[in-house]
Amino acid sequence: MKKYGYLATLALTAMLAACGSQDGGSSSNQSAESSKAEVQSTVEEKIVTDQLGREVTVPGKIDRVVTGGILPYFSTWYVATNSTKEIVGMHPNSYNAAKNSILAKISPDVLKAETSFIQNGEVNMEELMKVNPQLYVEISTNEDSINKISEAGIPVVAVKAIDAAAAEPLATFNSWLTLTSQITGTTDRADRFLDEGKKVQSELNTKLKDVATQDKPRAMILHMHNDKSITVGGKNFFGNQWLNATGAVDVAENDVQGKKEVNMEQIYAWNPDIIYITNFTETQPEDLLKNKVDGQDWSQVKAVQEGKVYKIPLGIYRWFPPSGDAPLMLKWLAQKNHPTLFNYKIEDEIKAYYKDFYEFDVSDEEVHSILNPSSDAAKY
């Protein structure tokens, strides 16, 4: 009955709003209507505009959030609010990343989240109702879940991921943070992160502006990989923007849109100077460096011959997609691409960042685990 009562309240609110818009009203009311503000608040609830342009009515105070196919979102919530106790449910693949991340130590409440509402890759409504969410956050492309959950009376906010990747990871994360701030009413932490990201990118741009294209390393993002399949990232995907922002040339930029399965002949043709391996695959650098993969001869690739194969770190979330560690990802990549130009110690950068933004003293051992993530974190 609670769900139907909540729906009745929303319906009444909508009716009152409709009446207000039809009323002759004052010029100030008309101005407010035409401005289409992102957030409209009442005492008990507010209306936010999600990333599909949908107006969604959410409670004014939210204590129970469930995150679905937008896998990194739980960490965005933490960045915006300094808390994960409100995350009462998350996708199993998000949970796996959380369990293997430093966030589990910083905010252990994240490990209390339920995962059973996702079964065979889909939302089980009976299990979801047991979690009793006040808000469900879903990837914008999953229309079936958005509609199904909304029809059950649970507010659903849609967040873009792949569609937003054509911009850049930092901008994408900033958009998530801005939306979360509108939902929660917390802006201080979000503003600090936005400012830091801009500051780091500006510092990188200043040092990289005089680097000629021929002096930039030719790099490749190995997105998914096993002995039967090689999937790389290219243009309009996060990796392409990371590489461009940190002074590298993406070898797949002209041949791959998004991500694509390729063969070893294509890898040989590209012959990258550096290979970066994401956290979405169990493959580790030594698998390529020691030529351990059956049916694939990586020894012919320049990056392997020169030992420049790196696993992308995992901090409060995987560093490849947008995350609160995005400024660190920029610094880490820039140093790998141009070690003489960026001569800071990345371990010190991580410690300072975590102390400043997460108010957490990360140990040497924890820094090592961030920079050398386990294959166990790769479940996707």
Question: What structural keywords apply?
Answer:
about 375 residues; six-stranded mixed beta sheet; four-stranded parallel beta sheet; globular; disordered N terminus
Describe this structure in words.
It is a single chain. This protein has 380 residues and is of the alpha/beta class. It is 42% helix and 15% strand. It contains 16 helices and 15 strands. The strands form four sheets. Strands 10, 11, 12, 13, 14 and 15 form a six-stranded mixed sheet that branches. Helix 3 crosses helix 8, helix 8 runs antiparallel to helix 9 and helix 9 packs parallel to helix 14.
Mind sketching the topology for me?
Blueprint: H1 2-22, H2 27-35, E1 39-41, E2 45-49, E3 55-59, E4 65-67, H3 73-81, E5 87-90, H4 92-99, H5 103-106, E6 118-119, E7 122-123, H6 125-131, E8 135-139, H7 143-151, E9 156-159, H8 169-184, H9 188-208, E10 218-225, E11 230-233, H10 238-245, E12 249-250, E13 259-262, H11 264-270, E14 274-277, H12 285-289, H13 302-305, E15 309-311, H14 326-337, H15 346-357, H16 364-371
Parallel strand pairs: 4-5, 4-8, 8-9, 10-12, 10-14, 14-15
Antiparallel strand pairs: 1-2, 2-3, 6-7, 10-11, 11-13
Helix pairs in contact: 3-8, 8-9, 9-14, 14-15
Short synopsis of the structure:
The chain has helices spanning 2-22, 27-35, 73-81, 92-99, 103-106, 125-131, 143-151, 169-184, 188-208, 238-245, 264-270, 285-289, 302-305, 326-337, 346-357, 364-371; strands at 39-41, 45-49, 55-59, 65-67, 87-90, 118-119, 122-123, 135-139, 156-159, 218-225, 230-233, 249-250, 259-262, 274-277, 309-311.
